[in-house]
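Dear colleagues,

For the upcoming journal club I promised to circulate an example of a predicted protein-ligand complex. I picked one with glutamic acid because it came up in last month's discussion. The inputs are reproduced below in full, followed by the predicted structure.
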Amino acid sequence: MKNNPLENARQQLLDIAKILELDKKTIDRLLKIENLVSGEISVKLDNGKTKKFKAWRSQHNNAVGPYKGGIRFHEETTEEEVKALSMWMTWKTAIVGIPYGGGKGGVAVNPKTLSKSELQRLSRGYIRLIAKAIGSDKDIPAPDVNTNAEIMGWMLDEYEKIIGRKDPGALTGKPLELGGSRGRTEATGLGGSYVLDSFVKKLKKQKKAVSVAIQGFGNVGSYFAKFVHENGYKVVAVSDSKNTLYNEKGLDIRKAFDYKAKNDTFKGFVGGKLLPSEAVLGLNVDILVPAALENAVSEENVSKINAKNILEMANGPVTPKAEEILANKKILIVPDVLANTGGVAVSYFEWVQNLANYYWEKEEISAKLKKLMDSAFAAVWAEYERMSKTTKKATLRQAAYSLAVQKVVKAMQARGEL
Ligand code: GLU
C-alpha cells in the first residue's frame, strides 16, 4: 500500500529507538498493538435494507494510563490507519503529560451518505461492538474526523445502557448536557494556536509579519484559523477538499468561517480568490498548516512545498520520506504529536471533571490548556536543542518522540514489564 500510515508511525518510532539506543525487546514491545477490536456493524437503513460497515478500535499502549483517542468515520479508514493513529495517541498523551495511553477507533463509512437516524444507529452499533473494551478506567474514546459531540452523546447513552449505570468519563467530547467540557469543541485549534505562538517566539518574528496557509477547514483547521487570525497572524489561505481560498493580504477569517458554515463552500466568498484545493500546499508562506488527513505531504508532492516551516495540525500529514527531504532544506516541522494535542488535553480536563462531578468555567480551561501546551512546547524545544548539540540533523519530531518514548518506557519499567 502506498504511504501506509502504520509503516510511517513504525518508522518514526524506529528512528528514535536508534537514537535512544533501545534494545530489541523494548522496540518490539513499543511497536506492538496491545489489543484490536474489529468487526462489522449492521445498520438498518431508512429504506428497510441493511448495510454493513467495517469498524475497529485499536489499543496501542496503556502503560501510563487508560487508552485514549478519538473515533473517526471516514470511507477510506482502514485497520492499519486506526493502528497508526493509536500509536500516535500514545506519544501525544505522553508529550502533553496526561495520564493516558493511546487508542483510536474508526468506521469505514462516508457519514454524508447517511441520514441522521442512520448515523445514530451506526454510532450505537459501534459502541455495542467495542463496549467490553472501553470505560472511564479502561479506554476513553472521543471525537475525530467526521464525529462530534452529538455522536458522543448517542454513544455514551448506548454505553450506559449496556453497563446499566452512569459512567460519563467513558467518552469525552460529549454535549455539555451529558457532562461535556466547556471549550472542548475548539480545543485542538486553540491548543495549536498556543503552540504556534511559542514557535514564532523562537523564530523571533512578529505575529503580523507571519503568513499562514491552512489545509483543511474541518473542526481543527477552522478553529485554528479563527484563533490565529484573532491573535494577529496573517492567514493568507484556507482550503477544503474543493478549493483554496487565497488572499495574499490576509483573509477575514471570521467572515470566511461564517460563510463556510452557512454555504458549505468557499465559492462565492468575497474577499479572496479561489484556487484549486491542492494549491494551498505550494504557497510561499512562513507557516504551512496541514490540518486535514495523513499523507498530505508525501514524496510525490514534497517538491511543491514553498513554505518556510510546517505546523502539523492533522495526524501524520507529512510522511517520513517527505520529512527527510524537507529537513535537508532546513524546513522546520512542528510535529502533530505536539501541535495537535489540545483536543486530547481538554478531553483530559473533561474526564477529570466527570470523575470529580465538579465543572469548571471556560476561562479556567483555556488557562490550564495554555499552561499544558506551553510547557509541552518548552520541553520539546529544550530536548531539540540538547539533541542538536550532538547531531546537526535533529528534528522537533525526534525531540518530541524522545521525551514521549522515554516516558512510556519508564512506565513499563516501573510496572516490571521491561
Ligand atoms: N481525535 C483527537 C486527536 O486525534 C482527540 C482525541 C481525544 O480527545 O481523545 O487527538
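Two points we might discuss: Residues 33-170 form a domain with the Rossmann fold fold (CATH 3.40.50.10860). Residues 362-390 form the longest helix (29 residues).

See you all on Thursday,
B. R.
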